[in-house]
Amino acid sequence: MENAIGELLDSAPCGFVSFDDGGKVVSINTTLLDRLGYERGDVIERHVETLLPVGTRIFYQTHFFPLVKLHGRAQEVFMLFRAKDGEDVGMLCNAVRRDRDGQAVTDCVLMEVVERRKFEEALVQARQAADDANKAKSNFLATMSHELRTPLNAIGGYVQLLGMGIPGPITPQQQDMLNRVERSQQHLLRLINNVLNLSRIEAGRVDYVLEAIAASEIVNSVLPMIEPQISAKKLRFDAVVGSDLTVQADREKAQQILINLLTNATKFTPDGGTVSVEGGKTAASQIYLRVTDTGIGIPEAMVDKIFEPFIQVDSTRVRGAEGTGLGLAISRDLARGMRGDLRVRSEEGRGSTFTLTLPGA
Ligand code: ADP
Question: Which of 236, 288, 296, 359 could make an S-S bridge to 274, C-beta 3.0–4.6 Å?
Fold first, then answer.
């Protein structure tokens, strides 16, 4: 029986080598010998490092063997072996250290990873191509949106002049139409500005001026901007941000994120609901600003998607809640650009909590 298994192991479609605690090879199968081009006599009783290139020898001494000694095993460890003709062969190794005939030996099973390495190289190349394409896209969008802004601003300017009656009197019906043109012009301008912002961020063309700022100062500076929406919808508003919380952030960008979160919170919360901001410290000593609302919430299936550009849950959910679907994508990119993050927890029908984290100062 033992012999039959020994024979099977000898020609198994994977390498097998066993060595004692001094590194001396006690057995090795034919598959591994053939792959590395050695005769059994070249290896048995020699140090296992004979089979390794210099870099892997160091790895074996400082990591691999100590790990096996400590845990009794190692799993899926990638190691290079050196064939007799000098070729380096990448192998994945599973090892177990056990007692055999009163002696501690480490048994290793080795699988060559040619296919996997080819696959990994292809992945790296595909990733590079995708990054290049993404950069080209961002550059294109940045240029396009810049070019579109000029005529749009001209449209806005002339509509305003007409509305003021400067070229001549206009009827109430014409005024109504001009208002519609202006609303559409502003919506397009917002969209284009957002696309421009996002593409600048993605192309890495945004500079962050980091400074120590009191978190409460950021909150206080944006409140006047959302105050009109809060009172128009008769929302309850609370802000609890301790004066001891200081962040390391770009002032304008932190404000931009917070305005976006608060605008969304008021937009998606029905009249009479509550919006609150709370500040604190995370376990990892980062500072968080948490914007919570008691609004319509986000369906579970959409929670992970809303940070992607142009994703809106359903524009018909809230009347007058027209947006561009870019605010959260920009906000999260900006937060990450400042070594922070933006996350959401939400329950449909009950409300949402957006948590902005920023490094503490
Ligand atoms: P916009 O608000 O311009 O549509 P955002 O990127 O800011 O774009 O938000 C994307 C979508 O996420 C919104 O259209 C909305 O469906 C959803 N959303 C964002 N904030 C909230 C919130 N506080 N409550 C419910 N839904 C929200």
Answer: 236
